[in-house]
Amino acid sequence: MSFCRTRRIAAGLALLALGACVDLPQPYRGRPGSRAEVLAIPLAVRLAVPPPEQALLAGSAARDFAEAVTAALQAQDVPVIATAAPLPLDWLVEVTAESQGQAVRPRFRLLDADRRPQAATEGSPVPVRDWANADRALLERVAQEAAPKLTQLLLQVEAARKSTDPASLAAGPPRLHMVGVKGAPGDGNTALGARMKDQLGKQGFVVQDTPEGAAYALQVDVSVVPAGVPGVERVEIQWIVSRRDGEELGRVVQMNEVPAGRLNRLWGDIAHIAAEEAAGGVKTVVANAIQAPPSNLEAPPPVAPQAANTALPAPTALR
């Protein structure tokens, strides 16, 4: 089975070829402006950030943290207010913190108006001593780190809800934990992960960097090895979809040959096209898992997860 869409790959190759021939000015490429996402998906909800009661902070520090999170989200153009008395239709940013040895890790959840979790993320660990004596500057730094993640998750939730069957809205959009990308040279690990988050968001998923509340997970393995021909390397990308309990559901596999060293620095449009082509396959694997009948004693023995092969777009033509 192939999830490769020929027309889109051809368009991507044409773009890459053009970039190789002439250096055209593209002042807004990759920098659409701070309001671009908000304008693309106008938010229909208001967030409320109550002072956290489970964040291992004293009363005044908890209020300061709620205000810091609110200010950081407002800087992202998110409609939000810090209040201890949210309105009935407000969505909540629930803030907690967990002690992990010599560190404390802040956690954030988006709750809808019915207080159902919709997405989750977490911040970097903070030394226990610093958290116990948290000042305004520390709380603002933690809030500023979390705000872009929360904004992206909120936009994904909003887009997914608009594209979801009304009968399925109560359960919320499917949540997927992006475990990570490994093995890619250059900036491939970061670029592939970021582009796939964007593409899966368009497919109706909420992609988060923490496993909390996520029914599915995505691990990406990249391999770049000599192709047996001088000056050529073989690239293989495996997008591995699993359940939250670790059981593998399926894989989307992309393979192609590229000029040696082509991916040692920036992946650019190659990451975008690879993620765009693989996202449909990931969605199909999850859809098949959702539709699969429950197992029973008379069910046939399980078979190995099927891999869907799709060609990785080549950046330039080989000679």
From TrEMBL:
Residues 297-319 are annotated as: Disordered. Residues 305-319 have a biased composition (Low complexity). This is Uncharacterized protein. It comes from Roseicella aerolata.
